[in-house]
Amino acid sequence: MILETLSLGPGYLILGALVAFSVYYVVRTAMIDRRIRNLGAVRAPSPVNNLFSALAWFMRAGRMQRSNQLLAFFDGVYESATPQSPNCIEIAVGPSIRYVLTREPEHIKAVLTTKFTDFGKGSRFHEVWSPFLGDSIFTTDGPLWRNSRALIRPMFVRERVRDLDIFDHWTNVLISKLPVPGETVDVMDLFYRMTLDVTTDFLLGHSSNSLENPKNDFARAFNEVQRIQMMLAIMAPLRSLVPTAKYHAGIKEIERFIMPFIEQTLALPPSELEKLSSTESSKEVTFLHSIARYSRDPKVIRDQIMADNRGTTLRLYPAVPYNIRAALTDTTLPGVGTGQDVAVLKGDMVVYSALSMQRRRDMYPPVDDAFPDPAVFCPDRWDRWTPRPWTYVPFNGGPRICVGQNFAMTEMAYCLVLLLQKYDRIEYRGDWHAQFHKAEIVGAPGQGVPVAFFEAEDGGEGA
């Protein structure tokens, strides 16, 4: 029979393959639909529901990422949502590969807390992110994740974070790099490099010293790896099309910087590590010494340092724009209003955007003189308004809440206070209307932050 089929020519082979694929597609779709019905749920609206439209969608997402229009792109995606499933859609690459995109607070709450055990990072996320972050707290689930979190959590206790010497030193280094009063400077680059110096000093006991050396290879590599990592995540099924030579070279450069400190620490006898880790003076205790006390595996230490470098360095801007979870079992996301629950099947990827959610106008009071448009920067609104639970999650929430959030907030507050003590006025010298949001692993102003600092003429303290 097989020989007879082969003798019919390539046209029949192609036809046979198409028939076989069609049968598989129909049967697989029917099985998926049955699992959804068994959950008593419905699909989210699916404007992209086949392989070809999905591949085109991911290509467009990649272009939007490169042109820094990802926020507008994702906001436009939700126009396909229905009243029964607002702010949530499905991108179906095929019957078994689905992405559920949401900016609904109740969905984020379910993923992070009420249905925490139903969701995790999953194997696909680990495959994409592990070259950069290894088997760390950001890429693992279950016992491996719990062990990683238990390993690093003691380093972020309140007493350790309250030791302000490290923040004081690097903030003063930053201030020393500012030009004379009245001269324009892009502080975004300075803040990025300062945060990198603080974090490496905190984790390794040795700073990257990028403030003193703007052409620092480690800082450049770290920035480039983050940029490409976001593109790999956005392109998802098409990530093989993303050039990765600079990505892998950047990871090697990062490892070249941190591995000597790991090897130096592992060379210490256990008794010395115990002494360093138990001392009351936190200035003598680095993250590296503490973690080496519990693990002698260089790869484990490397993965945790890479993860925490991201987790603390990238909190200069509080919102991680987009986050991903994989369904570890067949489950649902809660319906909103009178809508039915949304089905999420095992292996489906849930992409939730705190950035998009926190800009939804329908979650805020009506705009008036007392409450400006939510898109407008207005700190005064916090004096008379409090966001509803789960509508503001800059550090996530639940068991996976950012372990370094207090460290990040302390660093930011301390730096800003010192700047405001020295300078009486800060003047923005960019174009507000031309400014745009650059969304990579974290959000940042796309045109930098050009400002000028002015000292008080009367010699008094700053604002």
UniProtKB/TrEMBL annotation:
Sequence intervals crossing the membrane: 6-27
The keyword Isomerase appears for this protein: no
Keywords recorded for this protein, A-Z: Heme, Iron, Membrane, Metal-binding, Monooxygenase, Oxidoreductase, Transmembrane, Transmembrane helix
Highest taxon of the lineage: Eukaryota
MF term (GO), any: iron ion binding
Signal peptide: none
Cofactor(s) the protein needs: heme
InterPro entries found in the cross-reference section: Cyt_P450 (IPR001128), Cyt_P450_CS (IPR017972), Cyt_P450_E_CYP52_fungi (IPR047146), Cyt_P450_sf (IPR036396)
PANTHER family to which the protein is assigned, alphabetical: P450, PUTATIVE (EUROFUNG)-RELATED
Family, as annotated: Belongs to the cytochrome P450 family.
Protein's recorded name: Cytochrome P450 52A1
